[in-house]
């Protein structure tokens, strides 16, 4: 397949299918196999969180309908196909389309056009949704085609290819359909149960068999039953056996065998057929609802975005949908409103709640020139913002893509389970057949098992005929087996874990990153911007005898105000933060590599190195000890002289983040060694290491040397080394590490640079990422243990005739729900507990 695809000159397209019934990894495996059989398909990825299948295929050898047919042949309905490419989605409102007959005519008129990818009609709201391929027809061409078929078109709306809102609508429609099918099945089944009790234990009901046969018919053959049997038949024809095969074979034979009672008196199995199908419908509905809770992260993220924006046009405010925003648009954001899209503040000052991005509730001050993110909330002043990113390029869109990628990824530990579950249904069919034969041929030999079971299981009856025992055992095996529980074990935990991370500003890219991060033994930290703030700040102002701290700092700040050096700016900012007035100076001079000089209120002020003051014949012996201490601590210390006397020292340093020491302590408690690899000098690096409690320091390392440093650590710690950096300058080192963690990405989410992206610059988020990976993986292991344990125990019990099929189908439903529910419990976990 790969060689053919490479040799073929046709372009590769990427399409997406929405498959609502693909609810577990078992189902996803069947869908994947069905598509991979096509020669045109290059690659397939599945995501059960949003029921999306993404396919890369040869556009010259296959189209959207080819993909749809392959999936439907495997037993799964396809709600929508996006053909891929640069096409658009166009919606037409056709008021006269009032029936399926009309919808068929409209569809046929559009299918004649070249470049049509997918057509969906809804007679409920008279809407036709058309997805065109690249270069396909525009809205007016579609209008002409429909009107040519005799139907007026009231409106035509063209939108971009982002279909997530439609995906949510499909998901909601699927839940409603499952609810409707559940009631169609449950009402007759409840009536059957009500009739069965007095018939069995009190007084036989005349015409009982006919009554329950009629009541069970819609349950087994209509609504959900019909969909189940259709899926099973397709699955059997394709050779990829799914869960519906087991349910279909567990419900159809009992119904037909029960009908024999009209000719030959025997035990009725019709009640069993209805109960099995009804509980299957109940399980499908509850499972989908529970999985919806597990995968709610993306829906929450979608809901966070603003729906409309106020923009300036010709001096007036106009409200427009967010999807119509273009870069460069001037948006007006009032207090309490959401920022519509990513942009830059061009007027106004305010504080903005960025908790959706960083997970931190403390508002961030914004002024002219500041970057703001879409979906964050303006709290105080009015802001005018120029849009810089719109649509799929925004921060929120990137986060959603990253969460979807994580939810659709696979954990390495899952590979063995996948190989086994691929053969699960055929194995169950074999076991069911062997159970039937064994009970039919050797019921006398097996009777002691039933006699033992009779003593504590009320549904076991050793006096039943061999044929009845054989039927009960075979059906019990079919309905108790649960490949869905196995298929839900990993993805539901990933859904919850990745969603929790996104809400806290911890974006984990894949399941493999979760598995690797949980085993990390050493973390490599860059200094600047990771442990420290990455910008110099005033740390000390020490006066000499006869001077005050305020005098020294005010004088230094007044002179440094004339310099553009970052250290000078740090001194000026420090003075302002202390409420000092910055005086005006004259005669400013810069002495290369030594310092600066100016006149302040008639006095000469010098700020600089030892050399600058000694050149002016000043004695600095009294300040030498303090100067050396500051330099040993990794700070840049500058002497200040006023008049002809040394007045004191000011010191500037790249200050350590408030949370760095606590984060490193917490990492130690998790059993992780912390190593700093930095390009700074040894003295500064050691000073930082002492303050935050690092285990090891490698100083003077160039960016290319960091890769070698990580290799050396991997030799010591095995393949269990993580690297934390800015995701840009440290990209080679992030790639070399077993887990790359980009910190402080902000609006520029470094998706390609790292396995884990931390939106805020806080090192404590690394601790949360490690804790989240361990908790998520623990849930995966718990789920897999339960799912395997359930099947390993339940199938033999059913084969031994100790399990009634009605009890079996309830247990099967409970198995899937327990796995999903256990994953949802992950939401209760408290991250960062070691930091308090």
Beta-strand proportion? 15-25%
Secondary-structure-derived class:
alpha+beta
The pLDDT mean sits at 82
Number of strands: 30
The largest β sheet comes out as: 7 strands, mixed
Please report the number of helical segments.
Answer: 30
What would your notes on this structure say?
Strands 18-30-29-28-19-26-27 form a seven-stranded mixed sheet, sandwiched between helices. It has about 850 residues and is an alpha+beta fold. Helix 7 packs antiparallel against helix 9. The chain is elongated and about 125 Å long.
In short:
This protein is α+β, with helices and mostly antiparallel strands and 836 residues long. It is built from 30 helices and 30 strands.
List the main descriptive attributes of the protein structure presented here.
836 residues, alpha+beta, 7-stranded mixed beta sheet, 6-stranded antiparallel beta sheet, 30 helices, elongated
Would you spell out the secondary-structure blueprint of this structure?
Blueprint: H1 2-7, E1 12-18, H2 25-36, E2 41-47, E3 52-58, H3 64-73, E4 80-82, E5 89-93, H4 100-111, E6 116-122, E7 127-132, H5 139-148, E8 155-159, H6 164-201, H7 208-221, H8 224-238, H9 243-259, H10 270-294, H11 296-304, E9 308-313, E10 316-321, E11 330-333, E12 343-347, E13 350-353, H12 355-358, E14 364-366, E15 371-372, E16 377-378, E17 383-387, H13 395-407, H14 414-421, H15 424-441, H16 443-454, H17 466-480, H18 483-503, E18 506-508, H19 511-517, E19 522-525, H20 527-531, E20 532-543, H21 549-560, H22 566-577, E21 586-591, E22 595-600, E23 603-608, H23 610-615, H24 621-632, E24 636-642, E25 645-656, H25 660-669, E26 673-677, H26 682-692, E27 696-698, H27 703-717, E28 721-725, H28 731-736, E29 739-743, E30 756-758, H29 764-799, H30 805-824
Parallel strand pairs: 19-26, 19-28, 26-27, 28-29, 29-30
Antiparallel strand pairs: 1-3, 1-4, 2-3, 5-7, 5-8, 6-7, 9-10, 11-17, 12-15, 12-17, 13-14, 13-16, 18-30, 20-25, 21-22, 22-23, 23-24, 24-25
């Amino acid at each position: 397949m790969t060689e053919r695809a490479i040799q073929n000159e046709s372009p590769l397209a990427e399409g997406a299918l929405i498959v609502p019934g693909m609810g577990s990894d078992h189902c996803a495996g069947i869908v994947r196999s069905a598509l991979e059989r096509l020669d045109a398909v290059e690659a397939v990825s599945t995501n059960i969180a949003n029921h999306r299948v993404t396919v890369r295929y040869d556009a010259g050898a296959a189209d959207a309908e080819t993909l749809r047919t392959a999936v439907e042949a495997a037993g799964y309905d396809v709600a929508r196909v996006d053909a891929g490419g640069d096409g658009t989605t166009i919606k037409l409102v056709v008021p006269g389309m009032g029936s399926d007959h009309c919808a068929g005519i409209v569809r046929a008129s559009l299918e004649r056009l070249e470049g049509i990818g997918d057509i969906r009609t809804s007679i409920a709201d008279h809407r036709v949704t058309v997805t065109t391929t690249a270069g396909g027809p525009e809205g007016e061409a579609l209008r002409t085609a429909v009107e040519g078929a005799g139907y007026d078109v009231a409106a035509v709306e063209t939108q971009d290819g982002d279909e997530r809102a439609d995906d949510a609508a499909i998901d909601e429609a699927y839940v409603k359909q499952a609810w409707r099918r559940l009631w169609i099945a449950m009402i007759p089944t409840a009536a059957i149960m009500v009739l069965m009790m007095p018939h069995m234990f009190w007084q036989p009901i005349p015409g009982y068999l006919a009554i329950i046969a009629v009541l069970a018919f819609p349950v087994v053959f209509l609504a959900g039953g019909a969909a189940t049997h259709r899926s099973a038949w397709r699955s059997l024809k394709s050779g990829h056996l799914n869960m519906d095969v087991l349910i279909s074979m567990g419900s159809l034979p009992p119904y037909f065998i029960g009908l024999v009672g009209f000719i030959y008196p025997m035990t009725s199995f019709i009640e069993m057929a209805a109960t099995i199908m009804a509980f299957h419908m109940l399980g499908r509905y509850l499972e989908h609802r529970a999985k919806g809770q597990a995968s709610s992260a993306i829906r929450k993220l979608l809901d966070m975005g603003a729906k409309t924006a106020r923009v300036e046009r010709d001096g007036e405010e106009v409200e427009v949908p967010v999807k119509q925003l273009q870069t460069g648009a001037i948006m007006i954001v009032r207090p309490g409103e959401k920022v519509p899209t990513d942009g830059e503040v061009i007027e106004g000052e305010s504080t903005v709640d960025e908790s959706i991005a960083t997970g931190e509730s403390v508002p961030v001050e914004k002024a002219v020139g500041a970057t703001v993110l879409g979906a964050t909330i303006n709290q105080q002043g009015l802001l005018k913002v120029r849009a810089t990113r719109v649509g799929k390029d925004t921060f929120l869109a990137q986060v959603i893509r990253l969460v979807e990628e994580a939810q659709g990824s696979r954990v390495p530990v899952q590979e063995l389970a996948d190989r086994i579950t691929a053969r699960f249904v055929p194995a169950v069919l074999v076991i069911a057949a062997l159970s039937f034969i064994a009970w039919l041929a050797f019921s006398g030999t097996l009777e002691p098992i039933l006699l033992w079971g009779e003593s504590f299981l009320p549904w076991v009856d050793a006096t039943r005929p061999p044929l009845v025992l054989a039927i009960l055992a075979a059906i019990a095996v079919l309905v108790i087996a649960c490949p869905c529980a196995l298929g839900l074990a990993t993805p539901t935990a990933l859904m919850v874990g990745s969603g929790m991370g996104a809400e806290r500003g911890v974006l984990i890219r894949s399941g493999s990153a979760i598995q690797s991060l949980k085993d990390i033994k050493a973390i490599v930290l860059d200094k600047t911007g990771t442990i420290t703030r990455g910008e110099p700040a005033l740390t000390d102002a020490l006066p000499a005898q006869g001077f005050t701290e305020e005098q020294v700092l005010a004088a230094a700040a007044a002179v440094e105000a004339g310099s553009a050096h970052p250290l000078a700016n740090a001194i000026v900012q420090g003075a302002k933060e202390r409420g000092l007035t910055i005086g005006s100076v004259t005669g400013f001079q810069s002495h290369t590599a030594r310092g600066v000089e100016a006149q302040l209120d008639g006095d000469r002020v010098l700020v600089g190195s030892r050399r600058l003051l000694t050149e002016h014949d000043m004695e600095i012996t009294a300040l030498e000890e303090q100067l050396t201490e500051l330099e040993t601590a990794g700070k840049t210390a500058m002497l200040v002289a006023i008049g002809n006397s040394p007045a004191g020292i000011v010191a500037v340093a790249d200050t350590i983040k408030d949370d760095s020491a606590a984060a490193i302590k917490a990492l130690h408690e998790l059993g992780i060694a912390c190593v700093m690899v930095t390009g700074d000098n040894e003295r500064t690096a050691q000073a930082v290491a002492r303050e935050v409690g690092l285990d090891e320091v490698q100083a003077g390392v160039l960016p290319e040397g960091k890769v070698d440093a990580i290799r050396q650590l991997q030799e010591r710690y095995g393949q269990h080394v993580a690297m934390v950096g800015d995701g840009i300058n440290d990209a080679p080192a992030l790639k070399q590490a077993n887990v790359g963690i980009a910190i402080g990405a902000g609006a520029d989410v470094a998706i390609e640079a790292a396995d884990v992206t931390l939106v805020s610059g806080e090192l404590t988020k690394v601790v949360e990422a490690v804790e989240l990976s361990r908790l998520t993986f623990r849930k995966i292991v718990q789920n897999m243990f339960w799912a395997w344990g359930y099947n390993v125990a339940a199938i033999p019990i059913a084969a031994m005739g100790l399990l009634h099929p009605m009890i079996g189908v309830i247990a099967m439903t409970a198995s899937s729900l327990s796995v999903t529910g256990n994953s949802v419990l992950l939401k209760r976990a408290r991250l960062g507990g070691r930091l308090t």
